[in-house]
What does this fold into?
Amino acid sequence: MKYAKNMKRLLHNTVVLLIPSLIALSLIPGCVGQEPLEIPPSGGGSGAVEKLTLEELTARADLIVLGTVTDLTSQWTTDHKSIYTLATLLVEELIKGESSEGEIVIMIPGGTAEGVTQSMENAASFRVSERAVVFLEQGGDTTFSVVGGFQGKYTIEDDKIAGSDTSLVEFISRIKTYTGM
It folds into this structure.
């Protein structure tokens, strides 16, 4: 009986440590042609991620923009049950959709508020001053959410998609072929 308990604890600890490591290594946002891992449900996790192609991301997005993150603000929901982050993005180029705003606000599940951190394993993450192409769907009157979680955000470094040799110009051109532009 004691052996079974120890094995169960060892298995649980292995899974708890292994899953975040796999996510960190295999689900890095910004990799063109990446094949996200399908992670089976574990604990309170969201389970498998629906793999989305660039064409599917483009079709599902109401708005696709190239921009730079200017602000991140995390706060509790009004019922104080979960935390979300508002990322403000200064729009450099509108790739798909219509917006008269020079800045847009993206609502992302998770964040740190009042010393409490809550994370969502499949959510996109942002950093202030980060430049990215983001696939967005209307989330509310003035906010958007990222299509496909981490899959809907491509970080730009040195005018290339991070972790790839694909140039930003080529990437935007590919997206526009899917929009008919």
